[in-house]
Amino acid sequence: MILVTGGTGFLGSELIKQLTDNGLTVIALKREKSKVPAILQDNKLINWVIGDVNDPATLEDIFNAVTLVYHCAAFVSLNPKDKKKLFHVNIDGTANIVNLCLENNCRLLHVSSIAALGEAKKGKNITEKDLWEYNSKAHAYALSKYESEMEVWRGISEGLEAIIVNPSVIIGKNAGFEGSGSIFKLVKNGFPFFTRGAIGFVDVTDVAKSMIQLMNSEISAERYIISSENYHYKQLFTEIAEGFGVKAPTKEAKPWMLGMAWRALKFFSIFTGKEPSITKDTAESSTTLSYYDNNKIIKQTGIVFKPISNSITEITQYLR
């Protein structure tokens, strides 16, 4: 039997859809107040179970019937205020899943992030071999994903069969305007600025497809970057604007401008109570050039990634 944690999330729901499309029955974990996504409603191959990765007692009975575990559940935030929750869900929650997998002899596929990877050597793309060097100034999300990977490696050292995947920025129409979809909302609403940064992007369907292929292999104790293409934000914003039929951003947001912006928004959030739309971490990441190497996953699975331009067209048509 297959268990998917984070089953109501963007990636988790796509993964479950692909699994059940292949006729497989899935136990899907959800929190009590989480809503079942539209793409999974009325799917009779899904057994929804109320549980929490931070409350392992609620999961013990589930694991008695499970042999394969896709751990997609995670908390995502680049707001420093969320550090405690990030560590609790991403590190402690993963430790609980690892322990349950060890106790019940389950095979685990853990969804990490490119945020947990090291920095590339000068002139090189970031690969799975680039080790993450501890940096106390790194944003809390990156720290939480790195430490969650350490829990998986700890499990592997204790005999766990496990694989780690590090997806780049995951996009897809079913994200709507939430998560990575907020980029599309920003451009659609006429945001006039772009930054000089770059990062990897990948379609959610390709991430789920890669995960299933890796789980069904005999591979263990390996990690894989799952990324389609490296995109500069200017190119990304321009293509999104074209898809929506709106004016593309033409003004470059300089680092000093972003610095002023996140400081001002942080100050005003004290009085408004609203989360700032730009934080120090998001400002810094938007100007960083991060290029990722996807050769390992292509060699292992033979996957042909959907071009990001095709994904952008599909998303903008759906969200028009």
TrEMBL record:
<feature type="domain" description="NAD-dependent epimerase/dehydratase">
    <location>
        <begin position="2"/>
        <end position="217"/>
    </location>
</feature>
<dbReference type="GO" id="GO:0005737">
    <property type="term" value="C:cytoplasm"/>
</dbReference>
<dbReference type="InterPro" id="IPR051783">
    <property type="entry name" value="NAD(P)-dependent_oxidoreduct"/>
</dbReference>
<protein>
    <submittedName>
        <fullName>Nucleoside-diphosphate-sugar epimerase</fullName>
    </submittedName>
</protein>
<dbReference type="GO" id="GO:0004029">
    <property type="term" value="F:aldehyde dehydrogenase (NAD+) activity"/>
</dbReference>
<dbReference type="InterPro" id="IPR036291">
    <property type="entry name" value="NAD(P)-bd_dom_sf"/>
</dbReference>
<dbReference type="Pfam" id="PF01370">
    <property type="entry name" value="Epimerase"/>
</dbReference>
<dbReference type="InterPro" id="IPR001509">
    <property type="entry name" value="Epimerase_deHydtase"/>
</dbReference>
